Amino acid sequence: MPVVVKKVRRLGAGVAGPPGVRVTSPLRPLFVLKTPPCSDACPNHTDIRAILTTIAQAETHGKSYDQAFEEAFSLITEKNPLPAVCGRVCPHLCETACNRAHLDGPASINCLERFVGDFALEKGLPLKRLTEERYAEKIAVIGSGPAGLSCAYQLARRGYPVTVFEAFPKAGGMLRYGIPTYRLPRNVLDAEIDRILSLGVELRGGMAVGKEVPYEELRSNSAAIFVGMGAHKGMRLGVPGEDATNVLSGVEFLHRVNAGEGLDVGDTLVVVGGGDTAVDAARVAARLGAKTTILYRRTIQEMPAIKQEVEEAEREGIEIKFLAAPKEVVTQNGRASGLTCLRMELGEPDASGRRRPVPIAGSEFFVGASTIIAAISQEPDFTGLESFRGERGGTPVDAHGETTVAGTFAGGDILELGIVTTAIFHGRRAAETIHARLRGIPPGGAPPPPVITHDKMRLDLYPKHPRMDMATVPVAERFRDPDREVNLGLTREQVIEEAKRCMSCGLCFQCDNCWKYCQDQAVIKPFEKGQPYRFKLEFCQGCKKCAEECPCGYIEMR
What we know:
By secondary structure, the chain is of the alpha/beta class. It has 4 domains: 1-33 and 507-558; 36-125 and 459-501, Fumarate Reductase Iron-sulfur Protein, Chain B, domain 2 (Orthogonal Bundle), CATH 1.10.1060; 139-232 and 380-439, FAD/NAD(P)-binding domain (3-Layer(bba) Sandwich), CATH 3.50.50.60; 234-376, 3-Layer(bba) Sandwich (FAD/NAD(P)-binding domain), CATH 3.50.50. The protein has 18 helices and 20 strands. A 5-stranded parallel beta sheet has the order 4-3-2-5-17, with helices on one face. A 5-stranded parallel beta sheet has the order 7-15-8-9-10. Strands 11, 12, 13 and 14 form a 4-stranded antiparallel beta sheet that branches. Helix 13 (307-315) links the parallel strand 9 (291-296) and strand 10 (319-322).
């Protein structure tokens, strides 16, 4: 059995005083839970710290890693029923905020979520109901994208009969019709959707509310409605010539390809835009055999697309012309033959905070193209649901996601263009509010604890450990099988090692430092791992060593 040596420092080490004289302080240690920045940055406020530490501490707590992965899946699906999907398509704002970025690189949170999601699919793990009780109130959900699926899931697991109305033949919304298969394999998407439907959710495909089904009919038959339509309507460039038959919007192009329609885009294709839709469209076009160019009016620093996807596009031979904007679509016999463009320079910041692109006089240049894709923005199709369109386009809602029509909630791209995780949050927020209203439960809960930042921690007490990044399929192999998933994720062993990089910001992870450095025996170490440490304050002299040596910032002196 290893010998544990308790570190003892000389008297007075924690509080200044004359040599050899013990000085006490009225301050006493207190455990204060903090919110880690990863969870704070996540639009759905997933408990990322708990997920990662569950895996990292599995052996310490006498669990197998399979048990830990299953527990991690339960933690994720408290708020997100699509972990394998989000682990592939989320831009992982959580990683940008990770405190470990200030040490040696953020934790690969997205890859861990993907692994846990895939593990659950492989093992056939079901989604858990919160109750076996069944309620009579019927709920209608318009749209089966991430917002609608999230709302349906949260209400179904609470015992409500939910019917989802989807305008397209299959469920998934923008996940299915807007994201290429090389990023999101359809077997993964189908499996996670089927798991939600297995809770008793009814799906009615090919039923566009406002067209095939009047909204008033749903309202008269439902206790509550959630509107989660995606933004499937592309915005126009606003330049002459864009009515040519071979000028498509980014969402239309991706929808047609993802729906299985064969498209002949010719030899050269130009995409206008700098978001994820633009990059996805360009990479799909390259897989269709076209030499592809992206025109973006700002620089790469302002480009809103996921950084890794931009890098992969460049690896695949896609040229990106920065500081360039279209002036006119050049046509011949009703078809576009290319774009007259202007070179740009960045001026003062606009409403988005980014510097406004300004044309440079006399800078015109021509780019030839057999097909042009306009991927500058997109919006929902409000046909039949015009009352939900706000003055600025998006649907106005209150803090609970409720529209101006009582009992009707909304979320996802119908509010504003956003990421999948934000849409999932919108659906969950609405579902929780609907349940609280129908059951007479007080809404809301306690506000989260304050966020702990890296400067409130002792990063020097953590050993450095390089971040694990996932492998990708070689470029040459990608084009032989255009649907093949490019990003390969992490192995089981890599996931375990990556989880151990989590610093458990703001919550004890039992490093023993407080116990080892306390010279007054005021810290009581638990006999059983996983149980909390305690303070015997009558022994404490206020030396502050426990707080000073706590890496994660869980101990404060008050």
